[in-house]
């Protein structure tokens, strides 16, 4: 299986205090990494080091294209509770192109497997999000098969997070492998994310590619495999923006 992975949907700028690059840095780096389109997805406002909500509102000022590279307006929001709520209001959410969400301990402390599963399942079913970030995190055990089935039913992508294998969530490989295996079985979409906190890691998917290759996960079910597949996926969510980009 050959994967193109032209789009990176999970990046952070220095607006998130523990990241180190600017939008301009990512634009310069993108062609070197074969990335045609990327999303700026800084942490949602409930995180301790997150930017103010105006940061997301004002992303409307981003150009659609910069030096031949497309820019998506996004957020990595936080799962807040068991009821499927995230830390971004509808008035702001509706201005963004793509909504990622995930567990982050400062906002939602790790709980037992049933509570974690309920919270993630409800956010998938909420209709508010497009990608669930790093669902294989061992600090947040979940009933994986139940989550994958729900993601398939709701057409919400589960992320295979490359950074998790390198820096931040050691020990999650077996969980992520099971997610990919079950995603293939139940036809759930996946997203491959760098979770870059500096521009040098934009489009770094090497470990994630090894994993999805191991299970022979179909390239056509990876929402960010090509620019076209990403726009097609967003269109299923009522976000029809392909014509706004000059590819």
Which descriptors apply to this entry?
single chain; 247 residues; alpha/beta; TIM Barrel; eight-stranded mixed beta sheet; 8 helices; 14% strand
In CATH terms, what is the fold-level topology? TIM Barrel
Mean pLDDT over all positions: 97
Helix content: 25-40%
Corresponding CATH architecture = Alpha-Beta Barrel
Q: Which ranges are low-confidence, i.e. pLDDT below 50, for 5 or more consecutive residues?
A: none
Strand content: 5-15%
Measured distance between first and last alpha carbons? 25 Å
Could you say which structural class the secondary elements and strand pairing correspond to? alpha/beta
- What shape does the CA trace take? globular
Q: How many beta strands in the DSSP annotation?
A: 8
Query: What's the story with the biggest beta sheet?
Result: 8 strands, mixed
Regarding CATH, which class? Alpha Beta
Structural domain count = 1
Per CATH, the superfamily is Metal-dependent hydrolases
Radius of gyration: 16 Å
The number of helical segments is 8
SSE topology string: EHEHEEHEHEHEHEHH
Can you describe what's shown?
This protein has 247 residues and is of the alpha/beta class. It has one domain (7-237): TIM Barrel (Alpha-Beta Barrel), CATH 3.20.20. 30% of the residues lie in helices and 14% in strands. The protein has 8 helices and 8 strands, in the order E-H-E-H-E-E-H-E-H-E-H-E-H-E-H-H. Strands 1, 2, 3, 4, 5, 6, 7 and 8 form an 8-stranded mixed sheet that branches. Helix 4 (113-125) runs parallel beside helix 5 (144-154) and helix 5 packs across helix 6 (173-186). The radius of gyration is 16 Å and the shape is globular. The two termini are 25 Å apart.
